[in-house]
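BUG: 3D viewer hangs when loading the predicted structure for this chain

Environment: internal workstation, default settings.
Expected: structure renders.
Actual: progress bar stalls at 90%.

Input used:
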Amino acid sequence: VYARRPLPGGARRLAALLARPAPLAASSGEALHALHALVVRRGEPARQALLARPLVVSSARLAASAAALGFAEIRQATGPDPAALVHALLAAAAEAGPYNGRAAASRALP
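Structure tokens produced before the viewer hung:
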């Protein structure tokens, strides 16, 4: 049995996440909505940067939820297990091309 709880780190951790526009993965609607809510508080440019990133999800239900939030590029993994999510993340990253720190962040943030 496990308990879901937010990770510590606050604004610094979120800024680091937004500065690296690599694909993201979501395996729960709760986590996806929590991330979206945190980014919305940072303003529209941050929200648009998040929604423009490739997103890998573990199910069709989660893909529909991500689309409703406004994510533009959603890839459904072949299953909910970690290996399937990692495989889909690697494929999404390969299609998106290399990310190189500041140059990638400047392309992602309007």
